[in-house]
């Protein structure tokens, strides 16, 4: 089964100081995770909980996240689906995990996903060019 990912990269200014919270916000914003509609920063808070769970080497359920963050389960599931769609998180047996052991590996995997998608686009573009006679 082929996984489909919606990968968004937004070129925004990197934080000037080495503050881990600002860097995490930058990372999520650059990946299009934290939008202006998310007034209570739900996605960011869920992202942080996934990082904490990864540090402990465990997964976390949507119910646990809803309880810890005082959010509705629907809100949690919405944001978890977004994190899965972008390649940040995975779901295994009703537990959510960071896709890889650390953020560097997560971003490396997303880069691989992007490269594979670009290579497919190039191949299809070449085929179309050949079919319609473009040089």
Structure in a nutshell:
By secondary structure, the protein is mainly alpha-helical. It contains five helices and two strands; from the N terminus they run ααααββα.
Can you tell me the CATH class of one domain? Mainly Alpha
How many helices? The count is 5
Largest sheet: 2 strands, antiparallel
Q: Could you report the average pLDDT, rounded to the nearest whole number?
A: 91
The CATH architecture of one domain: Orthogonal Bundle
Low-confidence stretches: none
Strand content: 5-15%
Helix % is 55-70%
Oligomeric grouping of the chains: single chain
Distance between the termini: 35 Å
- Looking at this structure, what is the CATH superfamily of one domain? Winged helix-like DNA-binding domain superfamily/Winged helix DNA-binding domain
**Count of beta strands:** 2
Radius of gyration: 17 Å
Order of helices and strands: HHHHEEH
Shape: globular
Question: Which structural traits does this protein have?
Answer:
135 residues, globular, Arc Repressor Mutant, subunit A, 5 helices, mainly alpha
Would you write up a description of this structure?
It is a single chain. By secondary structure, the chain is mainly alpha-helical. It has a domain of 81 residues: Winged helix-like DNA-binding domain superfamily/Winged helix DNA-binding domain (Arc Repressor Mutant, subunit A), CATH 1.10.10.10. Helices cover 57% and strands 6% of the residues. It contains five helices and two strands. The chain has a two-stranded antiparallel ribbon with strand order 1-2. Strand 1 and strand 2 form a beta hairpin. Helix 2 packs across helix 4 and helix 3 crosses helix 4. The longest helix has 30 residues. The mean pLDDT is 91.
């Amino acid at each position: 089964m082929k996984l489909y990912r919606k990968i968004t990269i937004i070129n925004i200014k990197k934080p000037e100081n080495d503050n881990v919270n600002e860097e995490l916000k930058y990372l999520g914003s650059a990946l299009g995770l934290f939008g202006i509609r998310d007034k209570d920063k739900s996605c960011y808070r869920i992202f942080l909980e996934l990082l904490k769970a990864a540090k402990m080497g465990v997964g976390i359920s949507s119910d646990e996240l809803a309880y810890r963050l005082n959010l509705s389960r629907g809100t949690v599931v919405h944001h978890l689906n977004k994190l899965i769609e972008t390649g940040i998180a995975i779901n295994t047996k009703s537990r959510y995990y960071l896709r890889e052991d650390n953020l560097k590996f997560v971003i490396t995997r997303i880069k691989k996903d992007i490269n594979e998608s670009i290579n497919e686009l190039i191949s299809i573009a070449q085929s179309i060019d050949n079919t319609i006679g473009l040089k």
